[in-house]
Every structure is written in structure tokens, then in C-alpha cells.
Design a protein that fits this description.
Helix content: 10-25%
InterPro entries: CBM2/CBM3_carb-bd_dom_sf (IPR008965), Cell_Envelope_Struct_Comp (IPR051465), Cohesin_dom (IPR002102), SLH_dom (IPR001119)
Organism: Vulcanibacillus modesticaldus
Protein name: SLH domain-containing protein
CATH class of the largest domain: Mainly Beta
Distance between the termini: 47 Å
Structural class: alpha+beta
Pfam families: Cohesin (PF00963), SLH (PF00395)
Keywords: Signal
Length: 426
């Protein structure tokens, strides 16, 4: 390992350690995830509210657009009083169609919350309540509530966790109060001449009314993860991101989950035949033609004749290919003497940049490029204009990778940028 590599490794480890520092070590310099309760004193059997608050997310730590917190507790001593958390005042600044809650469940000793706001929405800065949840204390003693994961991502720095401090919670619970028994009433003086009471005749026992047959009982819960209903948003489809079989995999992609959720609700994405989204799969040209047609709401073209002999008439992508060709968004490829569309070929990042520029009718001209691998490329100017307008980013600071393919998650993010486009280049 070289000296430079060793230095980089030391810096990386230091950043990771700082990001998990307790409150006392860095409260003056770092923003904080603070876990608190609402009781001065707790007794066994009482209910309290646990609250997650964010403090000091300003300056270099402001503009948070994605939140994820995982809290661990002992289910033998704490009982959640709800299957979902209550959103805090942070979310009162946004309309319900400006954010999506992708995780919101409490079960088996874990509270897991994740949410993202859509691009174009003012991100979070400052102090505020992220969420709260009520718990019942089942036993006395010391109870520890710990943060197992906390991720806060800035809108202009996707995929990077903001360095922050974490304050865990320790509760001291007293035994339940026991009520003192009332003293027994003194016996009255006995009557010297008691009158014997007649034996009462017991009333006839009523005939029991047979209980109605309730039918078969519901099957017991399997104890799996409870996915709550998301915030209601009016969109043309009822399909939600939680409906995908690979939802758990999608939810881990902080930088793309909001885009995938939005495009799913818009009906742009539907999943494959097994109801999987497959976020890391590459996308073919015919698949991209289909989703760009849906995003731009292109009308079906019946008069345009497809001149590509590799596009089967009546195939599932036939209408989309006709639409994008008619609107001059996509062209064919010449292979020898044949002009083909190559529907099964994987679409490249250069091709996507070109299509986005054409869709927005942006004027293509020479702009300074930060990329060292686009010089002389056929799509260099389209890549530069797409980059300067925030439609697409590089693989690294100076590398665009024009001939590499894009994943479905990456395409989702690009399409949302297209929907929310505001020109940066005049």
C-alpha cells in the first residue's frame, strides 16, 4: 500500500468514526440526531412518546433531502402502541405529494423509518422533529434505546451520509405504584334476637342462547415486516413502490428510491413479469423508448411506418418505438447495408443524454466540459449540455463513461430530472 493510499484510508476511517460520535464528543461542531422521551419519570405500565429530533443541520450540513433512521429496543420491556410512527413537524413544510415515506414500521424490537423528498422541493435545514412513536413500559429497571443506523443525505450530494452525532436514550423505570388496601370495616354489634331469613327460591335458569357461528378464524400473523400505507398521492395508477417484490432492495438505494416511487405511481414503471423492479439491471433501447414515451405522454403514432427490419410489427414495444422515432428522439443504427433500431441492445449513457436534450429541445452548442473521456465522442456536445443543465452526472468528477450502460435506478433519477427540469444554461 502506497503512502497516498494509507493516508486516504486513515482519513476515511476518521470520517466514519466521527459520524458515529456520541453527543458529548462533538455536539458543538456537528449536527445531531437526538432521541428523547416526554416523561420526567417513568413507572412500569406507563406510556411515553419517543421522539427523534434533528438539531443543527445548517451551513455545511444543510439541505437534507433523504432521511433514514433505525432504532433498536428490547421488545420484552417496551411495547409499541402503534405499527407506524407519526411524522414530525419537518414534514409540515411540504405538501403530501412532495415527499414519500418508504419505511415506517415497528416490529420485533426495531423501528425503521426512511423518507425522501422529491427534486424541486425545498430540502430540510435547521432543527425539527423527524418522527415520534408511543411505547408502553412493560418492566422496571434501566432500558436502553439505541440508534443502529442513521443516514441523512443532502440534495446536492447524493449517496453521501452527512457527518453527524447521535444521542442514544437510557430510561430509568421505577416499579409500578401499588395501592394500599383499605382497612376492613369493623363488625357491627350482633343482633341479640336475629330473625331467620327464609331460604330464597332460586330463579329458573334461562336457556342459553346459542352463539352465532363466527366462521373460520383469520390466520395468525406471520410476524413479518409490516409495510404501512404510504402517504396518499393522487396519480393515474394505484401501484406503489411497496408492491414490488424486491422493495427491500429498492429501499436501500437512498439516492434513487424517491424517483422510483414517483415514476411507479405515475405508471412509468410497472416491473417485470415477476413483479420485480430490478434496480441494478441495465435497460435496453426498447425499454427506454417505452418509459420516455410514458414520461413525455407521447401519443400513439399510427401513420409512421417503421423502416427498421428488426422491429417486429405488433410487438410490445412497437408503439413506443414508432412514437420516439416520429418525434425524432431516437434513431436507428446502420450495420453494413442494414438500418436497424437494435431494440435489444443496452442503451448507453451518451444515447440517454442525447435523448434528454432532444426531448427538451435544448440548443446544442459548445460548453466547457469537466470530463476527460468525451473528447471526440459523437455525443460530446449533447453530454455537455445535459450535464450543465443537471440532467445527467458523471461517473466521477472527470469521467462521464459515455459508452457505459445505465441501470434502471439511474434511468429513474434521470427521468425525474427531466420532469422537474428548469434550464440552468441560457
Amino acid at each position: 500500500m502506497t503512502l497516498v493510499q494509507k493516508s486516504f484510508l486513515i482519513i476515511l476511517i476518521s470520517v466514519l468514526i466521527i459520524s458515529l460520535l456520541p453527543l458529548s464528543a462533538s455536539a458543538e461542531t456537528l449536527p445531531t440526531l437526538n432521541i428523547i422521551d416526554d416523561k420526567d419519570a417513568l413507572r412500569e405500565g406507563e406510556i411515553f412518546t419517543l421522539t427523534a429530533e434533528l438539531l443543527g443541520f445548517v451551513n455545511d450540513y444543510q439541505n437534507i433531502s433523504s432521511f433514514e433512521v433505525e432504532i433498536l429496543f428490547d421488545p420484552n420491556v417496551l411495547e409499541p402502541q402503534s405499527s407506524k410512527v407519526e411524522l414530525g413537524d419537518i414534514f409540515s413544510n411540504w405538501e403530501k405529494n412532495q415527499y414519500v415515506v418508504v419505511k415506517d414500521n415497528l416490529n420485533e424490537g426495531k423501528l425503521h423509518f426512511a423518507a425522501s423528498i422529491y427534486k424541486g422541493t425545498e430540502p430540510f435545514t435547521g432543527n425539527g422533529i423527524l418522527f415520534s412513536a408511543p411505547f408502553k413500559v412493560l418492566t422496571s429497571g434501566t432500558i436502553e434505546i439505541t440508534v443502529n443506523k442513521s443516514l441523512f443525505v443532502q440534495s446536492d450530494n447524493p449517496g453521501v451520509n452527512v457527518v453527524h452525532a447521535v444521542n442514544n436514550l437510557s430510561l430509568s423505570v421505577q416499579p409500578a405504584e401499588t395501592s394500599s388496601p383499605e382497612p376492613p370495616s369493623p363488625n357491627p354489634d350482633p343482633d341479640p334476637n336475629p330473625t331467620p331469613e327464609p331460604n330464597p327460591t332460586p330463579p329458573p335458569s334461562p336457556k342459553p342462547t346459542p352463539s352465532p357461528n363466527p366462521g373460520p378464524s383469520e390466520p395468525p400473523s406471520d410476524g413479518g415486516v409490516v409495510i404501512p400505507e404510504p402517504i396518499e398521492i393522487v396519480y393515474p395508477t394505484k401501484k406503489k413502490i411497496e408492491d414490488y417484490n424486491d422493495f427491500e432492495e429498492i429501499a436501500k438505494i437512498d439516492w434513487a428510491v424517491a424517483a422510483i416511487a414517483r415514476l411507479t405511481m405515475l405508471g412509468v414503471f410497472n416491473g417485470d413479469e415477476n413483479n420485480n423492479f430490478r434496480p441494478f439491471d441495465k435497460m435496453t433501447r426498447e425499454e427506454f423508448a417505452t418509459v420516455i414515451m410514458r414520461v413525455l405522454q407521447l401519443e400513439t403514432v399510427t401513420t409512421t411506418e417503421i423502416t427498421y427490419d428488426d422491429v417486429k410489427r405488433g410487438s410490445w414495444s412497437d408503439e413506443a418505438i414508432k412514437a420516439v422515432v416520429a418525434n425524432k428522439l431516437m434513431n436507428g443504427k446502420r450495420v453494413g447495408n442494414r438500418l436497424i433500431f437494435a431494440p435489444k441492445d443496452l442503451i448507453t449513457r451518451a444515447e440517454i443524454a442525447t435523448i434528454l436534450v432532444r426531448a427538451l429541445n435544448l440548443q446544442v452548442s459548445d460548453y466547457p466540459s469537466p470530463f476527460s473521456d468525451t473528447s471526440g465522442h459523437w455525443a460530446r456536445r449533447e453530454i455537455d449540455i445535459a450535464y450543465h443543465n443537471g440532467l445527467i452526472k458523471g461517473r466521477s468528477k472527470d469521467r462521464f463513461a459515455p459508452d457505459e450502460e445505465a441501470t434502471r435506478a439511474e434511468v429513474a433519477v434521470m427521468l425525474v430530472r427531466l420532469l422537474d427540469f428548469k434550464p440552468n444554461v441560457r
